[in-house]
Predict the 3D structure of the following.
Amino acid sequence: MLLEGRVAVVTGGGRGIGRAIAEMFYREGARVAVASRNTKNLQSFTMELNSGDHRIVPFRCDVTDKDQVEVMVGNVVEVWDRIDILVNNSGASGMTPIEPGDGPGHDDAVEAKWQEILSTNLTGLYYCTREAVRHMPSDGAGRIINLSSVLGKFGVPGYAAYCASKHGVIGFTKALALELAPRKITVNSLCPGWVATEMAAQGVAEGARRQGLTPEEFRRRAEERVPLGRFIAPEEVARLALFLASDAGAGITGQSINIDGGAAMW
């Protein structure tokens, strides 16, 4: 039990990478608050895992809403007195092409998507971190794990908002790691490549349409560009998060660690 007795908050924890992290932390002994906008996903997930010990609790929360974040964190602290680990996993993606498009309302739709991505991936991360840090111990157990992406290290045409936000997560991680080092709170980010999740499936479909391919062909080509030749499983990202959250990761801070099958070598 690597996280026995610790309190973890995982945002965007109802599906995909967040769900895998929440489940792994729970199985390693943590008390886990799972936050998401999707109440249905939350309830089914937590009911699946709860074995009567009430160590995993769902909280509906839109991380872009400062008031909702304050309430969610306050409720976690009311239940468990503190927060040891924060995983900022909530995220939004999608294309935001800078070139004018065809049809009425195109620019408005792109601008709305830009605002959604930036407010979720950066501002929401800031709100959650600011509130959680106030309740973190300064005894060497405090951990903040931010989900960036390999697109936080290079660019992809048409995804300026997503790339900008994920580059921003890495900058936030580096600055905050230095700010919180005197309190012995570590801050790191994970940079996954293609991960077999619902969000990735949406990205595959979007990319396939853009290139005039079938989703199957697009995925095959994407896998060919990965040295290990496959997408990463959510559980693999969760195992890396577990290492950083455990005592074994106490000496690692300010890092942005790729988990991408070798797609990015820096």
Helices lie at 16-27, 39-49, 66-80, 106-133, 160-180, 198-211, 215-224, 234-245.
